[in-house]
Amino acid sequence: MTIKVAIAGARGRMGTTAIQAIEEANDAIVVAALDYKYDGLHVHNSTVNDQCHGIPIYTSLAELAEHHAPDVLLDVTDPNAVFVNVQAAIELGIYPVVGTSGLTRSQLDEIAVLVESHQIGCIVAPNFSLGAVLMMKFSAQAARYLGDVEIIELHHDRKLDAPSGTAVKTAEMIQQYRPAHIQGHPEEQVHIDGARGADVDGMKIHSVRLPGLLAHQQVLLGGEGELLTIRHDSFDRKSFMPGIMLAIREVMGRKELVYGLEHIID
Ligand SMILES: NC(=O)C1=CN([C@@H]2O[C@H](COP(=O)(O)OP(=O)(O)OC[C@H]3O[C@@H](n4cnc5c(N)ncnc54)[C@H](OP(=O)(O)O)[C@@H]3O)[C@@H](O)[C@H]2O)C=CC1
Ligand SMILES: O=C(O)C1=N[C@H](C(=O)O)C[C@H](O)C1
Predict the structure, then answer these.
(1) Whole-number pLDDT of residue 266
(2) Ligand 1 midpoint to CA 183 (Å)
(3) Partners of residue 204 on adjacent β-strands
(4) Which of 24, 122, 135, 204 is least enclosed by beta carbons within 10 angstroms?
(5) Which domain holds residue 222?
(6) What are the angstrom distances between the C-alpha of 3 and each of 83, 111, 113, 124, 265?
(7) Selection from 112, 151, 117 nearest residue 231 by Cα
(8) Subunit comment for this entry (predicted)?
(9) 120 and 8 share a domain?
(10) What is the CATH number of the domain that holds 173?
(11) Is the CB of 100 inside a 6 Å radius of any atom of ligand 2?
(12) With bands split at pLDDT 50, 70 and 90, how would you rate the model's confidence at 22?
C-alpha cells in the first residue's frame, strides 16, 4: 500500500526536506499541500508557481481531502497554526503526524480526547531525530541519580518559539524521575531578569538563538564533585527524516495520541 501524505508547511524548511524524503521512499507519496494562502497554485522546492509544477496547494483541508483523499497529514507549520490543522484532520479521518512545536498541554489533552472519539491515531513528536530521542531518554534515566539539572537548547535565529518543544519534552521526561526541588542557592539574587532561565519545578531551561545554529541541546546533570553532560546536535534537517518516515508508517496502526517518538522506538 502507498501512503498518501498531505503536508502543511510545504513551503518551509522542514516541509521542503520532508517532501524530498517522502518522494524518495517507495511506500509513500505527497499528494497535496495545505497552506493558508496560494490556493490553486503549486509548490516546488519551497517556491510557489502557477505552472502546475509540483504539489497542488489548498487552503481548505476539506477540499484537499475531497480531491486527493490523503491518509496522513504531516504538519510542520507554526505554533499558531498547528492545533487547528490537527483538529480539522481528525474530523476528516486523516491521521496527523505533527512536528510543529508549541502545542500546549491543554491542546494535547484535547487532541487525545478527539482522537479517541474518532478512533484515529495521531503522533506528535517534539523531535523526530532518533539521536535527540535517545538524548532525552538518557537524560531522564540519569536524572534518577543526578537530580540537579539545567537544559541548554540552542537553535537557529528563525525559530519562533522558546523554549523549544524538545526542551519542554525533555523536562517532562526528567520530571518523572526527579523530585521537584529548588536548585542553586535558596537565597539566590537575580540582578538581570531571565539570568537563571525558565523554571520547571526548580530545573532550569536556557534558550540560545543564533545564526549558524540548527538544533542542539545539552543537558547538564550535576552531583557532588561531578558533572554529566548529555548533548545532541542536528547539523542538517535530514536528521529528522528517518523519524518522520517512521511516524508516517506507524500512525495508521494507532488509535490514540502518541506524544514523543520514544513510545515508538523503545
Ligand atoms: N519535530 C521535529 O523534529 C522538528 C520540528 N520543527 C518544527 O517545525 C515547525 C516548522 O519549522 P521550519 O520548517 O523550520 O519553519 P518554516 O518557517 O521554515 O516553515 C513553516 C512554514 O509553515 C507555513 N505556515 C504558517 N502557517 C501555516 C498554516 N496555517 N498552514 C500551512 N502552512 C503554514 C509558513 O508560511 P509563512 O512563511 O508564509 O509564514 C512556512 O512556510 C516549527 O514549529 C519547528 O519548531 C522543526 C524541525 C524539527
Ligand atoms: O525549530 C526548529 O528548528 C526545531 N524545532 C523543534 C523543537 O522546538 O524542539 C525540534 C528541533 O529542535 C528543531
Answers:
(1) 73
(2) 35
(3) 150, 199
(4) 24
(5) 130-235
(6) 23, 22, 25, 18, 20
(7) 151
(8) Homotetramer.
(9) yes
(10) 3.30.360.10
(11) no
(12) very high
